[in-house]
Amino acid sequence: MSKKCVKCGHTLPDDASFCPHCTTVQTEKREIKTPRRWKRAALTVIGILILIAVIGVAVSMYHRPKAYEGGAQIDYVDKDKTYKVLLTFSEGDGVTGHAQGERTDTLAEGLDSALPCQLYVLDQDTGKLAWEEFSKEVESCRVDTKPADGSRKMEYIEPMYNESFPNAAYTSDIYFTSESGTNDIVWTVKMKNSDTISLSTRLTIEKLPAVTYHAEDTSMETTEELQELLDSIDKEVSSGTPVYLYLPAVTYDGDITFGDHTWEINGSTSGDTTTTFTGTVSLKGLNGNYADISGIRFEGSSGTGLDAYCFASASECSFEGWDTAVYAHTGGWVNVTDSTFTDNKIGLKFDTSMSYGSSPNYLNNTFTGNGTAVCIDNLPGNEVIDFAGSTFSGNDTDIENKAGHTINTAKATFE
Fold this sequence. Notes:
The protein is built from 4 helices and 37 strands. The protein is mainly β.
């Protein structure tokens, strides 16, 4: 077959690409478009931007504040170091890195007490205490108590460094009564880099029913009657049962011994007469039993006024005329507040092998005209003995600290 020229109409071979008569090109012209290199560049730019965004998100995720939540212990990573952060009520456990997720204590009916909840920090790799470097990175540290259903909210003080627990980063005293029940002790530590650490431990207080004796109902007018009552209590009342005594406003001559119970011993006043002991009062509690004494006058001419072999506290009492007015020895400890010591050879004496983690405050006492107001022969532990609000006046020696124990007299008055 043949084809015709697209211009002059002459017959041409099928494969002719131009006309020999008029020289017209027989191939249809097509527009040749220049390649669009900008699309490839745009795709490249978009890919780079996506990569930068992914890297940015990854960096942001890595550096954004982290929340660490655990029970009584977590591992906290800061830069290239890992810290073990834990809660406990025991200094020994804290130093060795053992958290205490819960604790149950018993408390006599009607009484109140406190426990120091402590936060410890150790280097995860070495096991050594690291609270000093950790604390430099802390912005704030708070505590709260959350009572369980049917329990009462426990009071607390905000956490701070406490010289009585020098190995702990922070300590918060938790206050409770026999009715408190169970509370979660919740700690929140905010770091300067905005990380947050949340820890909690649980404290349960079980109430011990008490046996109560009132002067109106029980014969205790004389030393013999009182000692007979105490002897019968030793025989008939379990040593785990707290005993409350409300003594009459009489004078007890001769020595008195309180045996192995938790005691609350309350004096009274009638007119010008106050419950008075003129002989030695010995406290023999064992295995955690203790004594609270209030409103009693100890008036002697020699010997020891209050002789403690266990933990004891005395408030609003007076001690006068003793060789040693209050003596904590062997495994004993006596905490005294709002009391007076007058004309004793030694007012308050420590010569004990036991240390206690609470009640190191000897507040608002008055020491007047004593040979030695306070004598510390032996006293282990780290408790800082604080005499805030106490007055020392006219004593030959105010404080004789043979043991070199840490004391604080910054808020005491010396005249």
